[in-house]
Amino acid sequence: MHEARTESVRSRRTLVVALIVAVAAITATFAATASGTSTAKTISVAIVANGQMQDIASLTPALFTAKTGIKVKYTILDEGKLRQVTTRDVGSGGKAFDAVMIGPYEAPQFGAAGLLQDLTSMAKADKAYTYNDLIPAVRNALSANGKLYASPFYGESSFLMYRKDILAKNGVKLGLHPTWQQVAAAARKINTSSMAGICLRGKPGWGDLGAAFTTVLNTFGGTWWSAKSNGQPDKAQVDQPAFKQALDFYAKLVQDAGEKDAANSSFNECLTQYQANKVAMWYDATVAAGTLEAADSPVKGKNGYAFAPVYKTKSSGWLWSWALAIPRSSPDPTDAWTYIAWATGPQYIKAAGTHTKGGWAAIPPGTRFSTYRIPQYKAAAKAFAATTLAAMKAAPITNPGTSKRPGLPGVQYVGIPQFQDVGNRCTQLFSAVIAGSMDDTKAISQCQQIAAQAVK
Fold it and tell me: Which pTM was predicted?
């Protein structure tokens, strides 16, 4: 067992380094932008451009810097670009960032490869951080070999969000556990020229279109690769019937009843369209519910929430966390931990409830038991909190489909280093299918070649 584990770690380390080399040329320009000129009390942090992260960036000067004297220089990027930049910087030993935002796909692989600081001892020793307050499923997803490599800022699964008034007006009823066939029929029935039936991610990227599509692929019985007995990837499965069925279903649904400009839409674009009354349903991250029910949301109180739709599996929702990690090459790991302990600790969660425009409903969810004991949050998040926690618990992270998958656990991704490049390249093809500029057969053929070559 120990020998197999050592070989697995060596393999992951080699593949991670290869992945870093592949993206270095694309992202090198960000190193100079992010690093700048720093002092001992200024740290650089790379985060994703989602609402909750933008909130903390605006609150940091007053709630963190004023108390600690540590200034934080943020680099805020969309998730696809963030992944490119952090992969390059963390893996190459760059010193652009003291802390970076990553997730369960990267944390175990980078951590096991020796690219991240082990946060376990600091987290357990910091009484204010309260390590045991972390929800185990999220903490474990960010760990490898019992070591915590990233501290969760928020946790999420995926579920279906829908306008209760629009569905009722059209005589459509959806249960708490719908099938994809039921959702597709509902979307087509309620779709109009002014309001799309559903919003689904269509923007290329393994964490954009790739995330939503892979949950559909799993429950349709398809997979990206088969697995060898030792957990390594075996043969590419993109050319199998279940994969084509899932892609055809997804693309046709978006074409028939999806949002405008779907091939350029991901989380933020769907959020904007949903709040602007341009889409009636939306399948995406559970964290979106906090924005939909926020104090300043135009659709507050109008929404229903259901578990991720299924077909051949009992559950299909993903498990994810945007989390903060300290690269092994961080110029200032001590101040970086001081920042991370604050940003991902219970103190910030409580402060955010009274300092953000969205109020208590919009605080970072899904990481700590204590969040769900805050009276103000329980009241503000009544519509979605229980479903969010249940969805996270039900996420089939170790067995997401109908066949064994290679690599580390994961739902909306395959836990091997090759998936990042394969997912990015193949979703370019799938996005073209959604846009109507490429035939599905051609896209699948090209993706099969990409996936097969990646694991040779």
Answer: 0.89
